[in-house]
Amino acid sequence: MEPRMDLMANALGAKIAKRIYNVALAIQQSSLPQAVQDLVMLRASQINGCGFCIDYHTKDATAAGESALRLHLVAAWRESTVFTEAERAALALTEEGTRIADARHGVSDETWAQVREHYDDDQIVALVSVIAMINANNRLNVIVRNPGGSYEPGMFAGMAN
């Protein structure tokens, strides 16, 4: 599969990518556990069929010490025993927040209550933001057909500022 275009080779695309990366850094520096961030980004990317983001977030999570078992089971988290209740709440929010158009009322009050049980306000801001940002990234990459397989952990580290 060939990409339709290289967003990073376009001046405007690179400028937007840099801004997105800086938002990601702010979220990464929040008190929301990195493992939760990684699981959320992977799950949304699976739902959206973004090969580039699945590649990216699987490799980053692995580099951060996440187990292969947990990464393999993210797609079936409801039928798995390897996730904490807090992670399960975040994954439920991710699914409902990613599939907004499929749900009559968006995110359910039940899921929101579960999230409130496990996370403080700053962590919820980070969680909602990481869900929104990964969905935006998924859409950018899917639209231009950016394929998975070539990501190397840390390859975007120089984009900050």
Distance between the termini: 32 Å
Q: Please report which band the strand proportion falls in: under 5%, 5-15%, 15-25%, 25-35%, 35-45% or over 45%.
A: under 5%
CATH uppermost class:
Mainly Alpha
Secondary-structure content class = mainly alpha
Q: How many DSSP-defined strands? A: 0
Estimated helix fraction: 55-70%
Low-pLDDT runs of 5+ residues are none
What number is the mean pLDDT?
94
CATH fold topology? AhpD-like
* Quaternary organization: single chain
Under CATH, the homologous superfamily reads AhpD-like
Number of helices: 7
Task: State the order of secondary-structure elements, H for helix, E for strand.
Answer: HHHHHHH
The outline comes out as: globular
Task: Write the SSE topology.
Elements: H1 11-28, H2 34-48, H3 51-63, H4 68-73, H5 85-98, H6 109-118, H7 121-143
GO molecular function: peroxiredoxin activity
Protein name: Alkylhydroperoxidase AhpD family core domain-containing protein
Domain Carboxymuconolactone decarboxylase-like: 24-96
Structure explained in plain terms:
It is a single chain. The chain has a single domain, classed as AhpD-like, CATH 1.20.1290.10. Helices cover 61% and strands 0% of the residues. The chain has helices at residues 11-28, 34-48, 51-63, 68-73, 85-98, 109-118, 121-143. By secondary structure, the protein is mainly alpha-helical. The longest helix has 23 residues, at 121-143. The model has no long low-confidence stretch (mean pLDDT 94). The chain is built from seven helices and no strands. It comes from Nonomuraea solani.
